[in-house]
UniProtKB/TrEMBL annotation:
Single GO biological process annotation from the record: phosphatidylinositol phosphate biosynthetic process
A GO MF term: metal ion binding
InterPro entries assigned to the protein according to its UniProt record, in alphabetical order: CysQ/Inositol_MonoPase, Inositol_monoP_metal-BS, Inositol_monophosphatase-like, Inositol_monophosphatase_CS
Residues annotated for Mg(2+) 1 binding in this entry: E72, D91, D94, D224
Cofactor section: Mg(2+)
Entry keyword annotation includes NAD: no
Protein name: 3'(2'),5-bisphosphonucleoside 3'(2')-phosphohydrolase
Keywords: Magnesium, Metal-binding
Superkingdom: Bacteria
Binding locations of Mg(2+) 2: I93
Length: 288
């Protein structure tokens, strides 16, 4: 029986250590973080991103030498992981823009894929003192959130109806397409929670605070979604691309080029059907 207890123990410890490093830099302010823009409009990077990236990659490779590790700040050789069954996807800080501004909606994310399926994920929102983890395999389906006091609570997605849906959307990358989604699903502004980080947003769905996240364009990467997807799978939620196709975890193609839809699962197909005319208009593509 594959319970992944050794992997989970290590990754929880690594995430907490990484969170402490990130908070130390953030407390030091702009001079300590040294944020700068990456080439090709790939967003900001800070000293914390690069240091945590190096530490996590080294620790995972030392603990599991047969595994591949693909991390955001060292992804140039990611294609070499294509033929390895077990692959870790690491985002040292998801939500760097918010992190660099001193906000709390960012996360350290460590996820494990086996045969292209996310089976384990840790999302540590260090700024909010919230650590979530999930394991989703045929032998084990469990997801937990640990608060600042160390109290652990099982994660549970909501069962809200289509008429009650709560949306979570981007804080730093607001899009007119989000307003179109809200109109199509009749979601009023007061039921739109705006946050940074894919992991933070998906975490709100896994906890039942929100029900839906739509990323209406390309831009997210495998390390953005692997760990959160394991959490959401464990509580019965769903993530697909905008047309309803499963997300593909292949390190030879790092981007989710067809956007994504994450939901509490109960009405995923109806949500996809409701936004399909919008999606076809956005992409003008024959996907189907």
């Amino acid at each position: 029986m594959a319970t992944f207890d050794p992997e989970l123990r290590l990754v929880l410890s690594l995430a907490r250590e990484a969170g402490a490093i990130a908070l130390a830099y953030q407390t030091g302010g702009a001079d300590a973080m040294q944020a700068q823009d990456k080439p090709d409009d790939e967003g900001p990077v800070t000293r914390a991103d690069t240091e945590i990236n190096a530490r996590l990659v080294a620790a995972l490779r030392a603990a599991f030498p047969g595994d591949a590790v693909v991390a955001e700040e060292s992804a140039d050789d990611a294609a070499a992981a294509a033929d390895v069954s077990r692959c870790w996807y690491v985002d040292p800080i998801d939500g760097t823009a918010e992190y660099a501004r001193g906000e709390t909606c960012w996360a350290i994310q460590i996820g494990l894929c086996i045969g292209g399926e996310p089976v384990l994920g840790v999302v540590y929102e260090a700024g909010a003192a919230r650590l979530s983890w999930g394991v989703c395999t045929p032998d084990r389906r469990e997801a937990v959130v640990v608060d600042a006091g160390g109290a652990a609570t099982p994660l549970r997605a909501s069962h809200r109806s289509l008429a009650e849906l709560r949306l979570v959307s981007s804080l730093s990358h607001a899009s007119p397409k989000t307003l179109e989604v809200m109109q199509a699903l009749r979601i009023p502004p007061e039921r739109n929670l705006r946050l940074g980080s894919v992991g933070v947003k998906v975490g709100t769905i896994a906890r039942g605070e929100a029900d839906l996240y739509v990323h209406p364009r390309s831009g997210t990467k495998l390390w953005d979604t692997c760990a959160p997807w394991a959490l959401l799978r464990a509580v019965g939620g769903k993530i697909t691309d905008l047309w309803g196709h499963p997300l593909v975890y292949d390190p030879r193609r790092l981007g989710h080029d067809n956007g994504l839809v994450a939901s509490h699962g109960a009405h995923h197909d109806e949500i996809l059907a409701a936004i399909r005319p919008l999606v076809d208009d956005w992409f003008r593509s024959p996907h189907g």
